[in-house]
Amino acid sequence: MTACLLAGRPVSAATEIAANAIGGPLGERLTWVSSQLRLGADPEPTWALLADDPALGRLSRAMTRAAQSGAPVADVLTRLADDARDAARAASVASARRVGVKAVAPLGLCFLPAFVLLGIIPVIAGLASTIVLP
């Protein structure tokens, strides 16, 4: 969507192109917004209708603020995309850190019996044989 806006396309056309690229229910909601904007609807209430949507809420609020303030929409979308990438990166780092914690129990259950059988029992058997057999 940002690339379309930077290329000079209107918001309605950029929204339509993004909706077609995304597809699914999310794309359908963006297509609806695009059609409303092409028909001449006021952008603020049109985008505000999607403010409660979990997937499009941040986009909706950003586009509503841009429509109210007259801020360049491409800059707003770039900042929104940067925030989404940062959040995804933080979530993936947190997930990667949790993997180590989750792997401790299975590794312990696999390696501890092997360590006991191969490391501890031979030592005990050796000590027992020297103590029992003088």
Q: How much β-strand is present in the residues?
A: under 5%
Q: Using DSSP, what is the number of strands?
A: 0
As residue ranges, the low-confidence spans are none
> Major β-sheet, in short?
none
Topology as H/E string?
Answer: HHHHHH
Helix content: over 70%
| Quaternary structure annotation | single chain
Number of helices: 6
Q: Distance between termini?
A: 86 Å
Radius of gyration: 30 Å
Shape: rod-shaped
- SS-derived structural category: mainly alpha
Name the average pLDDT. Answer: 90
Account of the protein in words:
This protein starts with a helix and ends with a helix. The longest helix is centred in the last third of the chain and has 60 residues, at 73-132. The protein is mainly alpha-helical. The mean pLDDT is 90. Helix 2 packs antiparallel against helix 3 (24-38) and helix 5 packs antiparallel against helix 6. It has six helices and no strands. 83% of the residues lie in helices and 0% in strands. It has a domain at 1-93.
What's the short version?
By secondary structure, this protein is mostly helical. 83% of the residues lie in helices and 0% in strands. The chain has a domain of 93 residues.
Give the SSE map.
Elements: H1 2-6, H2 11-22, H3 24-38, H4 43-48, H5 57-69, H6 73-132
Helix pairs in contact: 2-3, 5-6
